[in-house]
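Kindly review these tokens for lecture notes.

. . .
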Amino acid sequence: MPGPGGVLFFLLLVLAAPLATAWRPWPPRDASGAIDPGFGASKKFEGSSDFVKLEYHMGPVLAAAITVHPIWYGAWPADQKRTIRAFLRSLSDQKVPSPSVADWWRTVQLYTDQTTANVSATVALGQEKTDARMSRGASLSRMDIQSVVRDAVTARTRPLPVDAGGVYLVLTSTEVLVENFCGQVCGFHYFTFPSVVGYTLPYAWVGNSARRCPEVCAYPFAIPTYVPNRRPEAPPNGDAGVDGMVSVIAHELAEMASNPLANAWYAGGDPSFPTEIADLCEGIYGTGGGGAYTGQLLTDGRSGSSYNVNGVGGRRFLVQWVWDPYRSYCSGPNALDQH
């Protein structure tokens, strides 16, 4: 049993770790719900190199083959699971025509650790766990997410494996409320505490915002009322909530791969409040993106839906761009200068 000093250290660690490594609602708003006064002049646009200085802080990246283990928390229809699985399977599939999800992941691969090892090119869909009964309840704190991971890896029947390249993706359905969901975050990533889970494991959480705040967390498939003269884009898989989740999942996976223990790639002096490689490009999906403009997207000629990358099985997705450390600006495979 730990002594008083150990208990105090753990409490300070929990309290000092706000899990600020998060996809934040877009477009940014002030406390009244209006667009942030600096929104129109945002420097988070394609070509920006002076927003903040991204730096390497000597920690590891996910250089070993990555296996993503989804944890489905709540009621998940089969078609929604299929869409998210298809995206995860697309991350390493080089046979998909460009611009592809795998092309998008190549920018994430540019990040290295102190041994010059790059983020892995191999990302596989691993084993899955379902908690349809919501054993932790329908209202979760951020720390509860770690308990959900613990339940999955310590389950009596078919526990998720604890492996070297494993990352754990907690996906909450529409009826689940997570602390700060919609108001401050749409997803976050961090690492589990051994005192809670038994291991230090990279994990992320992303929620389905379809019932609560699609205009916040599924933008641009739903548009806030304070964004004038803007029509929502048609989701490529016909589900605004899940198609919105795909972009948030992409965001969190990119940051988890490049900053899994909050001590690798980020900007800013405080690792508790980092600006990471996807934060720099929030809301940017194509050439010219910035402010409320997504940038130039591709359009499906049959459905009229908007997308920017191709996936397995003929799927299409819309995912935000990420920061290119060599070009020092946001980059994606559908950029006009990529063709």
